Amino acid sequence: MARKIRLGAFLPGGGQHIASWRHPDQPVDGAVSFEFHKHLAQTAERGLFDAYFLADNLAVGFGGAREGGNDRVAGFEPTTLFSALAPFTTNLGFIATSSTTYEEPYLTARKFASLDLISGGRAGWNVVTTTGDSAAQNFNLDTQLPHASRYKRAAEHVDVVKALWDSFEDDAFVRDVQSGVFYDKAKLHETNHRGEHFQVRGPLNVPRSPQGHPVIVQAGQSEDGRDLAAATAEVIFTAHQHIETAQEFYRDIKTRARRLGRDPNHILVMPGVSPFVGRTLAEAQEKYERLTSLILEEDGVGLLNGLTGGTLDLKGYDLDGPLPVAPPTEGMKSRQALLRQIADENNFTIRQLYQWVASARGHYTIVGTPETIVDTLQEWFENEAADGFNILPPWLPTALDDFVDLVIPELQRRGLFRTEYEGTTLRENLGLPYPVNRWSVEQPVAQAAE
Amino acid sequence: MARKIRLGAFLPGGGQHIASWRHPDQPVDGAVSFEFHKHLAQTAERGLFDAYFLADNLAVGFGGAREGGNDRVAGFEPTTLFSALAPFTTNLGFIATSSTTYEEPYLTARKFASLDLISGGRAGWNVVTTTGDSAAQNFNLDTQLPHASRYKRAAEHVDVVKALWDSFEDDAFVRDVQSGVFYDKAKLHETNHRGEHFQVRGPLNVPRSPQGHPVIVQAGQSEDGRDLAAATAEVIFTAHQHIETAQEFYRDIKTRARRLGRDPNHILVMPGVSPFVGRTLAEAQEKYERLTSLILEEDGVGLLNGLTGGTLDLKGYDLDGPLPVAPPTEGMKSRQALLRQIADENNFTIRQLYQWVASARGHYTIVGTPETIVDTLQEWFENEAADGFNILPPWLPTALDDFVDLVIPELQRRGLFRTEYEGTTLRENLGLPYPVNRWSVEQPVAQAAE
């Protein structure tokens, strides 16, 4: 079977784009509307997406936006939301974010196992260490732990969770009414983990998952992040503006995985893409301008300043003029350099720069027709830059509908994307192997499955 | 309006009764079946119950049962399950258990606020401190904390959660597309808690709940438990075998609440009742015998031994003879005395004793017709023993159906129970007041509500 593009959908209800809540298509209370999230999930499933993905934060986050201007300041907790959405879909996966720094492995293992049980094997765990002091301050700390400490803790946390997910062997539950044997006690195992950060006896009080265990997802870009991802991740979300850097990242991850003895095909690299789709290029461009025109000047300027850690104060400058050559301060040079590079490459004014940056927040923005967009996706997919993409519709629901109604058919026409789901679990649809339970490795997988 | 009986339903999917999974009516995989839980929720709503209640444990619990013989060894995590059930119901409340000892207040506040948002204001939090070393060993400890420490931590945990639930004032969200003001930043508040056990800055990243905040539920019976309940609980679950002890507890709780300046009508006492309902007394008795006959002798004897901490070894005794007079050991005297009292009062053989105990596990078992059962409920309700009851159907789903189809109509006939839901939130149906946000106390409630 030919290799197919995998697709995730990043659908936060509140907007991905800084001004999306001001777009007339988007319900102004989308971030807190269960019905709206249900509609998004069902649209993603109509488009045969692999998974619905939600990022998360353990604090009120302003995301560089003006206080009072951010519609993502409050919303649902991801695993409760996804549990509620799962019964309204049948094949779509649900990848929720959960923190290895501020949550306990027993609770992490349990909530994802429960989501997996509710959804019939469609759960994924996006493993994050959670950056920022504002989250730390909600969990008994004054400042966050150092980067390296967070990643050491993360590696151990993931190990414990995976061990807990193996507590019951696949065929542990006999449920024999006559004999009164509900489960085979020889097939229930304690974890007995005693590590540097955690001490967990187990077993977990949830059965083995319908897909073995939930799919492990990560998005770390640092050295520590890449090491953790290569060792444990099955899907990696990443952000690149150019095919060259995407290729560098893709090859690096696959190489690291191979070195650790893993099959590089079992670790899927999925860059983020923010698409503005039109039947013509002019229509696509119109949609881009429609949305970006909704950015208040104060928010746009504030965003550039926020992205550079408060070192790019552009107040008083003509927004329709060029980005000033000499940066006003000396801090955060790399972020300033990135903005300078984008401005120079595109010959952007200050306004055009913040419009571009606000749109994808670091991900790759494509403005085009189904054909030109699929040309790009195909190029990345066929040249070791991507195994699939995480689609970030810049406003909702219509930018998602545009992708489903216009881009998906073009992908299918070229044989790059499924025309029906391959299976009912997330793992089956992603083409990832069923992880054999550590306690039943002697048995063939087929027999081990219930 | 006349005072009405409040009803909770304890519906664990797996059986309340030790042998219920062997009953032919009950699906053998009920504990892990989402469809079965959905059916139970919809049946409870058909019966106009106030709430669906789930107990919980943070370890594999054998509940005194034979290893391998317990169908509640594995199941769903309660808040994910209830989130998934909520959209399939419209008025039923969902009271989930969560631990103040092993969970963090920010996460507790968030998951219940999210369940409340998903359900439109139907969430309740059953506050537990979680007993037992087996749970402690899943959370970096060798043994559990002392009782008093757990309760001190619980009181602080509840305080922090309630403060976090007030982060956004009721009318904080303006969502004005023209001006770009999504929320009024003056109506978002940090918690800034620094206590003995927790340090939490806030604010919570979930809006204020549709019912102000989720209903606070407790079940503590000890001195510490009663103090905590009197101070913070709005609903109390309790277990009594006789109206006299239920009255003592009821009056004690109401007195403690009054002393703390609370309105005693705003703290509802709900004893557990396990009903076997028949159209005739003979039919009810038959149902009792049908279920209890399914208890394996090994499990019955093991249960009595387990309940007394392993001090009542009855192996070798005639199960159809009397409970031996001299207890084989001297430990756990109070539990042994309780079993002795039940055996003597009812003139029970060993078999009859374990059958009785297995049925309700400390709650009040009633075997009767709708009329005799309602006679008892009415007596308790009208004589300061109960504001309502937590119904524990001994097997599922038919014992729940019996209650809904036979007992509810008799309660309604006597004007003791609602004929339709009073409101859409759990709080409205329980007749509990809307808690005014601490930051907007100057404003009248009517204006503060969105």
Task: Give me the secondary-structure topology.
2 copies of one chain form a homodimer.
Chain A: E1 6-10, H1 34-46, E2 51-54, H2 78-85, E3 93-99, H3 105-119, E4 123-128, H4 133-136, H5 147-165, E5 173-176, E6 181-183, E7 193-194, E8 199-200, E9 215-218, H6 223-232, E10 235-238, H7 243-259, E11 268-277, H8 281-292, H9 297-307, H10 333-346, H11 350-360, E12 364-368, H12 370-382, E13 388-391, H13 398-413, H14 426-430, H15 445-448
Parallel strand pairs in A: 1-2, 1-13, 2-3, 3-4, 4-9, 9-10, 10-11, 11-12, 11-13
Antiparallel strand pairs in A: 5-6, 7-8
Keywords (chains A, B): Flavoprotein, FMN, Monooxygenase, Oxidoreductase
Family (chains A, B): Belongs to the NtaA/SnaA/DszA monooxygenase family.
InterPro entries (chains A, B): Diverse_substr_monoxygenases (IPR051260), Luciferase-like_dom (IPR011251), Luciferase-like_sf (IPR036661), NTA_MOA (IPR016215)
Low-confidence blocks of residues of chain A: 444-450
Q: Label the CATH architecture of the largest domain in chain A.
A: Alpha-Beta Barrel
Instruction: Report Rg of chain A.
Output: 23 Å
Overall CATH class of the largest domain in chain A: Alpha Beta
User: Percent of residues of chain A in helical segments?
Assistant: 25-40%
Q: State the strand order across the main sheet of chain A.
A: 1-2-3-4-9-10-11-13
Strand content of chain A: 5-15%
Q: Which of globular, elongated, flat, extended, rod-shaped describes the shape of chain A?
A: globular
Query: How many β-strand runs of chain A?
Result: 13
Largest interface: A-B, 73 and 73 residues
User: In whole angstroms, how far apart are the ends of chain A?
Assistant: 26 Å
* Mean pLDDT metric of chain A: 92
N-to-C order of helices and strands of chain A: EHEHEHEHHEEEEEHEHEHHHHEHEHHH
* Number of discrete domains of chain A: 2
Annotated CATH topology of the largest domain in chain A: TIM Barrel
The major beta sheet of chain A can be summarized as: 8 strands, parallel, barrel
CATH evolutionary superfamily of the largest domain in chain A: Luciferase-like domain
Enumerate how many helices of chain A there are, as a single number. Answer: 15
Q: Give the quaternary arrangement of the chains.
A: homodimer
Helix/strand-derived class of chain A?
alpha/beta
Keywords (chains A, B): Flavoprotein, FMN, Monooxygenase, Oxidoreductase
Organism (chains A, B): Agrobacterium cavarae
InterPro entries (chains A, B): Diverse_substr_monoxygenases, Luciferase-like_dom, Luciferase-like_sf, NTA_MOA
Pfam family, one (chains A, B): Bac_luciferase
